Amino acid sequence: MNRQQVMDAIRHKSRSEQFNSVLHLGAELTVCARAAYPVCDANIEHLVGFNEMQHRIYGWLRHPQGGDEYPVEQLFEGLLAAATHYGIAGDLSWAIRTSLHITS
Asked: pTM for this one?
């Protein structure tokens, strides 16, 4: 999965479908964060990264759903950057594939 696949998958959804996919993504990231618990003693940054992504996701979900002030593409750009920064890009990739139903 690459950035373009993510953007193509989310961009072609209706606003309602985007909302549901992002909501699902937030739930999937909680599963990923739980898997990080054993390594947290060595690297708390993983949990910080999951928390940052959750913050972005739920901020987007709380934003008025009728406007374009916070486009979903901007959300995903931020998530991809945060995941790379915190070393959890693989976890985000799995969660995105699951929530957006990307198969390749």
From this structure: 0.86
